[in-house]
Each structure stands twice: as C-alpha cells, then as structure tokens.
Records
---
Amino acid sequence: MTRTLPADLKQAEEQARESLLEALSDGQSRRWMVSMRFEGLRVLPVALRLARKLQETGQKPVLAFPDAGSAALAQRDEPELAKSCCSLQDLCRGRLMERQDDLLLAVAPQPSDYEELEQACADWTGQVAMLNGRLEDAAVGIGSVARSRRQGFVATWEVAYWLQPLDGAALLHQWPQPWSLFRADPDGYRFVMDYERRPDPEQIDEALAGTGSELNRQMGAMDRFLNDLRS
C-alpha cells in the first residue's frame, strides 16, 4: 500500500477495506477499528458498501447496529444483507450466534453502547471489526471508570485504518504501516512524518510547526485548551 491521502470518500473506503483485510489476515488481534473521522459522514451507506466488498473477498459479515431502528434501515436499504443485520441487543440475546465464527462488523457504537458491545464481543468467537465507533466518553474521561475501560475492553482493539482531518493537516494510518501526518499546503497535502503510534496533539503541533518558534507551539497548545473549555 502506498502512503498517500485518498482523493475522495471512494478512495478512503477502498483504503479502509484493503487495510482491514490485511489486518484480519495478520492474526495479531481479533478486534479491529476502522475510523473515518469526517464531519457529517453518513455511516450506514459506508457500512453497507464495506460489507458488500468484504463479501466479494469471501468474508461473511454480520452487521451489528446500536439499535433496532438502525438495523431496520440497513435491512431496507440492502435486502441481500437483511438476514445479516441486527442490533447489539439482538446479539446479547443470542441472535445470530450460529454465525459467531464469521466476521462481526459493529457499526458506529457509542459510549452508551459500551456494555452491550463488550458483552457481544465476549460471546463472539470470530473476528470483530468496528466502523466509526467511539468507546470512550468524555464525561467519564477522568477517574476509575475511564481507567478501567482503557485498561480493559478498550485496550483489546487495534487500529486497522484511521483517517482524520485536522486543522491544517490530516492523520492517516493503514495497517501495517506507521501513522502518517500530512500538512495542508496551498497546493495540496504534503507528507510530514511517520509515527509508530498514534501521535498526540502536542506531537502533531510540534511537527507542523517545524522550525517555528516555541511561541507558535505554545499558542497551538493554548488554542486546544480553549477549545476544550468551549466543548
């Protein structure tokens, strides 16, 4: 795989599919994350297209949605996958467990779905992929509950694909390549540097500042602090 940013959503989905298949065949983990952090992204069509592409490679994905309503929409929009779509609550009640050796694709679970997703994954014997999920809640980001989650269930996931637009930059990870930071220049995005692990905001600020002054880096940190206060 080449280390380039996708030109559009179609290319991003193709990169994500290739990275996920590479990760699934690697055998290092049973649980993989695929994240495309575009604001306003409609996840359901992306999930259905991903499922169809996975079927073409011999996978038999079971799609688990946060609620029955989302599962019903998926069944309506993709009748051929209707029998493979359910809610997380359905899984916790034992539905489709006869297919637990197949790939489970959890679609956009949120912190409120944490317990159900954890139970479903514990019961599922096959591999699991999570598309645009968010397991950590900012409201419990500090304290024993957050620490327990990070050290437990959250820590069992590896990132197969990550694409995140940033302020004047973008972050890309394609398994098994490093995390790559790109800077937005007037004529397009340019590669800045690689990281073995996902870089934190301070590392990103420092790399984008380049040879800039310490003041610029401090201002970047202050902007993040002020944004956190507003959120």
---
Amino acid sequence: MSGESKRAAARQRIAEKRAAETAARAAAERRRRTVLGGVVAAAVLVIALVVVFVVQSSRTSTDADAAAPAGTVADGTAFPVGQADAPVTVSVYADFQCPVCQRFEEINGDTLEQLVADGQITLEYRPIAILDRFSTTDYSTRALNAAAVVADKAGIDAFVQFSDLLFANQPEEGGEGLSDDQLIEYAAQAGATGEAVEQGITDLRFEDWVADVTEASSQADVNATPTVLVDGEPLDNTTQLTPEGITAAVEAAAQG
C-alpha cells in the first residue's frame, strides 16, 4: 500500500472514530436530558399535587368556617325531620332545579312523611346545588340559599313547606329560575317573613354554606340527584325509589 493510501486509510479510521465518539456523546446527552426531564416532570407533578392538596385544604378550611343555618345536624350538612332516636335514617340528596327530584317528591313524599310520623325513620333533607349551569342566574344556589334562610329564621317545618313550594313551582331548566321576589313570596307562604329573611335571600346569606354542603356531597361520592341513602346505603335509582322500594329498604335496615 502506498504512503498516500495509508494516510487516507488512517484519516478514514480517525473520521469513523470521531463519528462514533460524537454519536456516543449525543446518545449520552439524550439520556441525560431524558433523566433530567423525568426529574423535572416528577417535580412538577409533586408541586401540582401539593398545590391541589393546598387548594383542597384551603377549600375545606373555608367551607368549614361557613355559617350553617339553624336547625341542621351537627356537621351542618342536613336538615333532620322526625325523632332523633328513630331506628333508621333516610337521607335524601336533591337539587331544587332537578326535575327528577320534583318527580321523586311527588311519588314518595307522602311515604316518607308517614314513615317519619310512625317513628320509623329520621328523614335527613340534604339539599345541594349542582345544577347552576342549567339556569342563567345560578338558580340552584339561590334556591338552596333561600331554603337555608327560611330554616334559619322560621324552623324546620317552614323549611319543609318552602321546599314543597319550590318543587311545586319549579322553573324550567335553561331559564332564569324563580326571581328573588318570588322566593321571598314563597318564604312568606311557608311562614318566614321580615327584613332579615328578605335580605338573606337577596344577599345570598348562606352562599358559602351552599358551596360547603355541595362539596361535602361530592366528597361523599354523590354525583346525581336524587340520591337516597338508608342508614348510609344508597338505593338503586331505577328500582328502589318508589314507595314500596323505600319502605322495604327501611324495614330491612330496621331488622339489621
């Protein structure tokens, strides 16, 4: 092999070696970036989780400080009706904007009332506001706030009567909902009158509490209305939300 050929071969080997080294460095850099990216992503995830935790903790703290209306259970999330020592507790989650809840009350209201009168159940009304998007004025929140004002100023019996009025006069979804003046009129029909009632309704006195109980229902895995629990066990919405189904579930719960 001539000298020139040897030099060419040497240059070729050097070029190949440098190319290999360059490729190795590029691969190493890619691995480093991948690892670094993973670390950064993990850090971002941790930060996100911390932020979520902080936001949730802040929300819980704020909600816990929300003033609850008079007459609610110890944690402020329900209005109890009936004897406190009744053997079975029935909890009803409902939204005043919910047409199915209206139908539920029409079908089962008398049965629940009779079970309370017979001392078989404590009935917990657990109204929530999850359907604000179906009105142009956040009607679910306004209606529940008004119900809370009625309970606070006139008692549980007035709250029950007011709730019946709201369902009997339920507005269609997608509109403005009942006006504050209409809510005030129905409050008066239920026995809650006066300046404090009117201001409580127009100023959303219990708006924070409404958010509180709605958030509490979400944390309790309630994602639809009506939802009915008998001693904490949910009834099947398709088969048990009837007078017969509720009565049978109450009797079974009473027998343990």
---
Amino acid sequence: MNANPDAAAQSLRQLIERLETLEGEKRGISDDIKDVYAEAKATGYDVKAVRAILRLRSLDPSTRLEDAAILETYLCALGME
C-alpha cells in the first residue's frame, strides 16, 4: 500500500470505480445472454441442449472425446446402451 494516505485513497477509489463499471457491464452481458436463451426457446430450441452444446464446444476436442468414451463405458456397464 502507498505511504501517502491521499494516494492510497485515490488508488482505492479508482479500483472501486473500475469494479463498479465492470460489474455493470457484467450485468448487461448477463441480461443479453438471458435474452438470447429466451430467443432460442421461443424459436423452439431446447435450451438445455443448447447449454450442453456450448459446454462441449468449450472443451478441447481430445478432452471431449475422452469424456464421451468414459460416459459410453459407464452407460454400457449399467446396461443403458
């Protein structure tokens, strides 16, 4: 922390203001995401499936294949495949 109390207060104020701005942007983006999911649902898409696809697309392809193979193995072991 800075030795000068005025400088420390100014630094803190700037950090708080930056965080407030980012939190406001985050709320705006969150609202936009909700709107797109609502649009997907209104169009007839299954939102749960859309979320699953987004989750899968965020994975590295090799991780995705490995996860699918493990799931397949477990499903077969349980007689579900």
---
Amino acid sequence: MLPYFLGCPSWNEPAWRGSFYPSDLRPSETLARYAATFNAVEGNTTFYARPSPQTVQRWAEQMPAHFRFCAKLSGDISHAGDLREHFAATADFLALLAPLGQRVAPLWLQLPAAFGPSRLGELLSWLDEFTERAIAVELRHPAFFARGEDERLLNRALQARGVERICLDSRALFACTSRDPAVLHAQSKKPRLPVRPTAFSAHPQLRFIGGPDLEANQAFLEPWLDKVAAWIEQGLAPHVFLHTPDNHLAAAQALRFHASLSERLPGMPALNLTAAEPAAEQLGLL
C-alpha cells in the first residue's frame, strides 16, 4: 500500500481512453479501473451537484476501502451566504455520502476569493460544528497570502483544529505561454496565488496545476517531490492531486510524479499499471 495518496481531479475522462484506459472501456467501469491504479480523487463533481443516493451507492461498491474521495462541499453551501446558515445543509450532504464511510477524508471546503478575514469567525464556527470530520480548507482571498496578521490568525486557528490548508500551486500553468484554448481557459479560471505548503495534520494537501508540457512541469514539481518525500519520511500521509489544463494528461502527470518520487524513496511500492500500460509506454514511462 502506498504511504501517500495520489490522484487526479476526476476518474471519468474520455480523453484517457486508448491511453490510460482501454479504448473499449465502458463509462460504468472507469471508477474501478481508476481505483486499481490511484488511491485518491478530488471530489469535484459534488461541488456542482449532489449525486443521487444510487450513484453514491455505486461509488461505494467500486471504491476500495483504502481509497480516499476528497469530496468538495457543494457550492450552495460554500459559496452561498453565511456558512453558519448551512449547518443543516452540510449535515444533509454528509448523510448523502455516508455509504462511502471513511473514504470521504478529508472533506474539502473550497471558499470563494471574496471570503476574507472579516469572515474568519464564520469559518471557525462552521469548523467547530463538524469537529468529528477530517476537513481541509482552500482559501483564495489575497489577505490570507500576505504573510500578515490575517494569515497568521488563520494558520493558528486551522492548526489548533487539525484542519488542513489546501495548497494550490498554479505556477506551472501561468508560466505556460501556449495559446491553446484549453490553456487560456484554465488560466482564466484558476487562481494565481502564492504557494503555501502546510502540514497542520497527518494529511497535508497539494493541488498542482500544470501546463500541457509534462517536461516543462517537471521543474515546478521538483521542489514538491522533495517536500512530499520529506513529509512521508516524517510519518505523514500527504494527498497529491495533479491537474493539466484540460486534464487530458492528468493521469500521465500523476504517473510521472510517482515515478520521480520513487527515485527519492527507494522501496516505494509500485503503482498497479495494468490499466495504464498503453499510456505509460506511449509516454516513455516504462
């Protein structure tokens, strides 16, 4: 079993067919095939819409017990008014995902850029309402990245509660000068914020947003490989998620990350590449 959690923004990526997935793989089989290689996924789908109970049950049947589904709170909780008004909605959301059990860890709260220091008390009240859950928070307001008192107060409050501060690193994306529409779209949507590597619990969280050139991304990943290796050596189990602009190469980027990390940590278990052999051979990873 891997000593860390590795994955992509989703498992249902049609562009992976014929590379990471067999070309004839049915949509209903993608989760099981994904989970045969990776042990975590970003729960982006739950931000946009709540899944049906039947869908959650299917996920529960296909996700191994050690798998981690980092479910994002739906946008009508995280992006709609005071968080303290959404205790009941949050409880309902958690009840919906209950069939996944311990696989929903941590629960992700991604806050809008307008959520600033004046609302810190609101955030802490919400966190204190759900202390039994492992939670990670992604913030985007510039004041929380200014190395001032607002950021210090935030970090102290999160660390005291064992709540992770999700680190989003989009430097590779914004260093890309491609005029490809997928790159331009990603650059228009993704935040461009200073990098804040933190470990406030046993499970530090990294979201790396790269460009379409995996070799060019490597220079930005090298410091993260050192950081993740150090965390693992300290006994932590970080979560690492790899993005590319349209995520067509996200799985390939994740495979490359693990290969590079294994060079730093001899004895690292190999990924199960049965599902990924065509892509790995195509990308020169084997």
